[in-house]
């Protein structure tokens, strides 16, 4: 296993009744997962909770305490069900009010006479937070401590993620190699693969079956922060697949 | 709000490093969410955790205690990283061993001489569990208490879900209506919509912006278990949208 000093961890908290009802299919988890893997940050946990203050506060506090970074999506618009900013303030025990920097951003998009109470909700930022720019529709996200609060609309979330990327400290990148086991059934190689994995604590080995029109198509993925250990494990797995396919 | 007696709740636990790494994009959450909504069961929380026993056991115990039903996906194959069955047994404090009913199912697909130790892992079932049939590849899932353990491969998960559907008790179905706010900006109706929501505790109202090539396209969704309250709320929202669009 990698040393703890090499490991930078993260969690995602998706906030929104519309995801839990199935009406909206989440796209942000996969996007953030890819982003974090590329940045050398281990995504360790994801939670999806409804638009309810008690559940949001509990999840924010559980996840921010446990991981290096927490990324939230959703609940920062102008309507009554957008309560993420207030919940994050409550989780940290800090105040929240209209932020003049955020108001200025909204004024880049809205005329002063259109900046009604509802829109000003989008400028409510917990005290002590840094803003995360929103090049799409201006209403900003924010970072408070290790918590990054982003929009739920995928296009805006992606833009926010890009803008915070330079501020994140990644760990040693996790390297991975995929070995196609193709038509070889998992049950044929599972025992030997387990032995290979057990003997290589610096390498994580997974076997992932997928159904295709041509039947099961299995892939074995080896992952490690140590390039040499990864190459050695890959060779061992390839030799196993070759032997069983012969 | 619906009476507690009318509310049947659920959580989903997705188990798998491959989802957290981004390598595999989850499709099961949306499928199960749609299924539960149709069954009148409130999906209240989702978690995704890695293939690590401590995290799986903790999540199983947290979620099974809190909700009527827990549905897990992933980690029931034949390889060393498939540890869900053992973790569920540990969470319940019960033993686990090869189950003769499950072995018989595997023998429908595999010759006795091919039923090696790895494949027999798929017949390891916690004591006291009922099996969930797998018409696709035979290796069963299982139900222990209120926890339903299903495969991660979407086609198999779906088949398992269909087979357990008749065993679930749904609550009063949640009804919903969608009002298109189309080009109306959220900030224009957010204040009034909040008032409409506040005055109708039996109805849940959400506003969901989406970016399209034609700009923002907002939808307001009203949900309730009470058909009359729903119809009244829908009229109120439609009147609001009509007034602001005029």
Automatic annotation (TrEMBL), chains A, B:
Keyword 4Fe-4S set for record: no
Source superkingdom: Bacteria
UniProt GO molecular function: FMN adenylyltransferase activity
Residue span(s) of domain MoaB/Mog: 11-171
Any Pfam family hit: FLAD1_M
Residues in the signal sequence: none
Name of the molecule in the record: CinA-like protein
Source species: Methylobacterium phyllosphaerae
């Amino acid at each position: 296993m990698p040393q703890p000093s090499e490991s930078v961890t993260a969690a995602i908290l998706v906030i929104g009744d519309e995801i839990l009802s199935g009406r909206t299919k989440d796209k942000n988890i996969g996007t953030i997962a890819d982003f974090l893997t590329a940045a050398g940050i281990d995504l360790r946990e994801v939670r999806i909770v409804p638009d309810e203050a008690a559940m949001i506060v509990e999840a924010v506090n559980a996840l921010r305490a446990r991981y290096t970074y927490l990324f939230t999506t959703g609940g920062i618009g102008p309507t009554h069900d957008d309560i993420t900013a207030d919940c994050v303030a409550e989780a940290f025990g800090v105040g929240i009010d209209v932020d003049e920097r955020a108001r200025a951003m909204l004024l880049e998009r809205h005329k002063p006479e259109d900046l009604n109470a509802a829109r000003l909700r989008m400028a409510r930022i917990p005290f002590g937070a840094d803003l995360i720019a929103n090049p799409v529709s201006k209403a900003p996200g924010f970072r408070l401590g290790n918590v990054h609060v982003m929009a739920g609309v995928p296009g805006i979330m992606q833009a926010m993620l890009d803008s915070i990327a330079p501020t994140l400290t990644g760990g040693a990148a996790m390297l991975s190699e995929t070995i196609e086991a193709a038509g070889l059934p998992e049950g044929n190689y599972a025992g030997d693969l387990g032995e290979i994995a057990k003997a290589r604590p610096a390498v994580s080995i997974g076997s992932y079956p997928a159904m295709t029109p041509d039947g099961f198509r299995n892939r074995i993925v080896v992952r490690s922060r140590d390039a040499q250990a990864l190459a050695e494990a890959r060779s061992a797995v390839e030799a196993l697949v070759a032997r069983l396919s012969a």
